[in-house]
C-alpha cells in the first residue's frame, strides 16, 4: 500500500495540530502492518514556500538555515512521539528538476499557460472543486481569505482559480534557471511531483489536515491527473480535523500554538500520543491541559501494570485476550475509530490483561515512552 502525507513547512516548531495528523497516520500504518500489509510511506518537507521565506526575512536568517533547523526540530519531536519514520522524506529543494519537467509537460499539453508566471488552467480539468465539494463562489472566497486570489489580466491569470506552477522569485528568495525564466515552483505542483516520483502515478491514500483539502489537494488532484491521464490520482483522500485552543484553530499566524515540546515537558510522550488519538481523526477538537493530565494518570496505571506483569511472568508468555483484541481490531477497522480503540485499551487495563495492553500500545503509541 502507498501512502503520501503532506508534511510541514519548516519555519517554526511543530504544534499539536501537526502531532495529531502524524499520530493518526502512524496508527493507520502500524495497524495495517500489524495485519500484514506493507506500507510505503512518503512525507515531504516543504522547504520552498512563502511562509518560510517570510519568517526568514523577518528574522534576518538564511532560508536554508531556518529550514534545516526547524526540520531537525520536527524530526526530533516526531521521534519523541514514537512515530514510525517515513520511508522517504523528500525536500522540495531537491526536486526542482522533476518539478520543472512536470511544469513543461503541462504547458506543452495545453493544461498550463505562461504570462507573469506559468499557471495551471483549471478550465482544462473538468470537475475542479469536486474533491472539496465547493462551488466556484466558495473557492474564490477561501482564496481571498487566504490572500491567494491574485488578479486577472493580460500579464496575470486568465481565471482567478488558476494557480501557479512556476513563478518569479523575489530578490531574497531562491531561484533556479528554466526556460520559463529564473524562479521557483508553486506550492501545489511540489507535492504532485514528489508523490508520483516516489509512489507512482496513482497512490492508495493521500493524507493531510482538513485545511489542505482546498486549495492544495484540489489543485494537486487536478494537475496530477492532467499529467498522467490516470484517474484517480489518489484512491482515498484522508483528512484530519483541526486542533483548536481557546476556541480558535491552532495556527502560527494567530499565535495560539501548543507546541509538541511544551506537552512533552508536562507529560510522558505516551500520554501525549494517547491523548491525541483519543479523538476521532475527522473531527475538530479543543486541546485541554486537564484532559492531558487525566491521560497521564491512565499511562501511569498502564506502566505499573506492565511493570508488575514483567516481574511476575518473566519469560512466560501469555497471549492477549481474544475478545479484547477482536474489539480493538474492529474499532480500527471501522474508519480508524481510535477513541473506541482507546476504550478497548482501558478495558484491557481493567481486566489486567498485560499482553493485550502491550499489543494495543504497540499500535496506539508506537515507540513513545511511558515514563
The structural domain count equals 2
Shape: elongated
Label the CATH architecture of the largest domain.
3-Layer(aba) Sandwich
- The largest sheet has its strands arranged as 2-1-7-8
Over the alpha carbons, how many angstroms does the gyration radius reach?
22 Å
Let me know the CATH homologous superfamily of the largest domain. Answer: HUPs
In percent, how much strand structure appears in the residues?
A: 5-15%
User: What is the CATH third-level topology name of the largest domain?
Assistant: Rossmann fold
CATH class of the largest domain: Alpha Beta
Instruction: Specify the biggest β-sheet.
Output: 4 strands, parallel
Write a brief caption for the model:
The protein is an alpha/beta fold and 371 residues long. It has helices at 16-34, 50-59, 63-80, 96-108, 136-145, 187-199, 213-228, 260-266, 269-277, 289-313, 322-333, 338-350, 354-364; strands spanning 2-5, 40-43, 112-114, 118-120, 163-167, 184-185, 203-209, 234-240, 243-245, 248-249, 285-286.
Q: Secondary-structure blueprint of this entry?
A:
Layout: E1 2-5, H1 16-34, E2 40-43, H2 50-59, H3 63-80, H4 96-108, E3 112-114, E4 118-120, H5 136-145, E5 163-167, E6 184-185, H6 187-199, E7 203-209, H7 213-228, E8 234-240, E9 243-245, E10 248-249, H8 260-266, H9 269-277, E11 285-286, H10 289-313, H11 322-333, H12 338-350, H13 354-364
Parallel strand pairs: 1-2, 1-7, 7-8, 9-11
Antiparallel strand pairs: 3-4, 4-5, 5-6, 9-10
Helix pairs in contact: 4-6, 6-7, 9-10, 11-12, 12-13
